[in-house]
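hi! just following up on the protien thing from before. the input was this:
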Amino acid sequence: MTITISPRHPGLYINDFFIKPSNLSFTELAKNLNVSESAVSRLLNAKSHLSYDMAIRLGKLFDHTPEYFMALQMKYGLFEASKDLDLSKVITL
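and the predicted 3d structure came back as:
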């Protein structure tokens, strides 16, 4: 039996491992990233995906590469997309 664990939405991950330990409010984070509070809220509440632009901004703010943050989005996005596919009809080459 295979157990599949869903990856967390990148916004939830970023909130738990970067924002909360930094004690930043959504307002402070938005100001530091030079984006709207609405954009921060949507991302951290898993209402929007992580954009390339936001990954670059987060990378600079938290001294990580944008690729680190985009990997979170890629894993989550691929998992979500695969839930809707009937892979039994895909031919293996």
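The helical segments are 10-22, 26-33, 37-44, 52-62, 66-83.
The chain is about 60% helix and 0% strand.
cheers
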